[in-house]
Amino acid sequence: MSYSTSNHSHLTDNELVSLYKSTSDKIYVGELYKRYTHLVLGMCIQYFKDRDVAKDIVLQIFEKLFDELKKREVENFKAWLTFVVRNYCISELRKMQTQVNRDIEYQYQLKNQSVELDKEEAVEEEQKLEALEKALESLNPFQKKCIELFYLKNMSYTQIVEMTGYSVNEVKSYIQNGKRNLKMIITNSK
Which CATH class is domain 13-101? Predict the structure, then answer.
């Protein structure tokens, strides 16, 4: 906030406030800004612990003064300004804390929704597995054996042939027909 100011440094704070109230000329608040920027910035840094945030707050406070000075009777500008700065900083910190709390609550809700979705997905997966187990029981013993060894035990055709004594063509046929039968059983049970 920079206002082109003629030299009003000889005027007292109260004279500047009075002139602003009577003329609404922001040049007088600009002179007060020049006088008290360092004080206000120092206070804001104490509250916010971040120089950049503090600088933004300083500008907001001086913008607020345009309205506040017209509404208030100010006898000791520096003391009044200190009061305004303190209240404004506390108010902003509360807003920030409220926003942080909202953000935390939102994250918590998202996590809970995710957990609920995970539970629903787990229940759905469990139901699919139960349907698959029932369907497996419906297959003929040769198909069931080959499907279990191939898909559940991750065995190759060769390993299944060695374990069961079936031919490679029988193993392939049992697996292919078993898959088709499983699909039909599960589809018809829905």
Answer: mainly alpha
